[in-house]
Amino acid sequence: MGSRSGAPVAGVTITAERTSVSPLGGEDNKAYTAITGPNGQYTLSGLYYGS
Asked: What are the C-alpha distances in Å from 5 to residues 2, 13, 34, 40?
């Protein structure tokens, strides 16, 4: 994440929602949420992106 000036922004909530079942199973319509850290980076744990 970054601001218009390019500086990192902490405390931003990022949400991704799975809207279908992944090929390996798992829940559909599941939300994954993370909050950006002091450096503007975040991690969405447990999210399968595919191969």
From this structure: 8, 19, 23, 13
- Beta-bridge mates of residue 32: 16
Q: Which pair of tokens denotes residue 43?
A: 């991690």
Which amino acid makes up residue 1?
Answer: M
Q: Using alpha carbons, select from 41, 33, 27, 39 the residue that is nearest to residue 14.
A: 33
Give SS3 for 3.
coil
* pTM (predicted TM-score): 0.69
Q: Convert the pLDDT of each residue in 1-51 to its tens digit.
A: 567 888 899 999 999 888 776 666 666 778 899 999 999 999 988 776 665
